[in-house]
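Record minuted for everyone:
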Amino acid sequence: MGAGFFIFSGVWALAMLAVFIKAIRLSYRIEARSEGLRNTLGVPQKAMMIHTAFNWKVARDPETQALRRRMLFLLALNLAGFVLLWGALWMTGSVADLPNGAA
């Protein structure tokens, strides 16, 4: 594998990380707008992405639902990025070169 592959992989990883961080930030915004998910303890907590993704205890107003749809799009974009990278590796035959014979 050439140096171009490693540069591409690094840029791809940064892009996927940025998209996932944006989705987490949206999840926190959705939680702040939803009474059932609001953090009332004052201590930091994990993002409740499962709740926001599946619309559990999420406010039903149009603005919050628009934020939720945007978060779902970002999560789907992240998943698509992983699938496309795997497909590219599979098509080039590089999947067989992975350690421990993965895939």
Observations:
- The chain has three helices and no strands.
- The mean pLDDT is 87.
- Residues 18 and 103 are 27 Å apart (CA to CA).
